[in-house]
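S.,

Sequence below, as promised.
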Amino acid sequence: MNVISPLEDYVLAHTSPEPDYLYRLWRATNVYTIHGRMASGHLQGRLLKMLVQMVRPTNILEVGTFSGYSAIAMAEGLESGGKVYTFEINDEMEDFTRPWIEQSPVADRIDFRIGDALVEAPKLGITFDMVFIDGDKRHYREYYDMSLDVLRPGGYILADNTLWDGHVVESEYDHDRQTQGVREFNDFVARDPRTEQVILPLRDGLTLIRKSS
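The prediction came back faster than expected:
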């Protein structure tokens, strides 16, 4: 389990409560999976829900489901008729994740698929209003390019882990492929005239990107 600092504890105490179902999912993710800290958790989950409520998307694409926490959090914020299409490339996660999604209070708003979003998402023929990128960091540029292709003008991309535990500014990680992938993504997005963006230093870094054209 992650150790919560006094400041983090203060922030969570002054943030809307985490639903019991998501709290139980977060605990199970940390107990039964190897990389439990990858789950969004209380603070980011409440932010994702609120961002969805602000943008009011009809269709959301998620690249990287993991245990389903972020998909459920985003689905909580959807209005009637909205849908989260979430792709997980690691089929070993399906036995854990699918029951949590299908038994959730928002199961009817989530379409969970095992497969490579780079290949499968464009085949849906859906124009998305929002995309949440949280997959393999080595492929973030590819996810970004694909997302722009299926995103409506004025739509939003949320990219997780864009500070990558601070490794983006640490020279000892210059040869780490995942760090290289995050840096390449960050540098490219910062120069892309098609979008505007801001990095939030929340948890491991969350970049908000708006497609302008």
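The first strand starts at residue 59 and ends at 63.

Coffee later?
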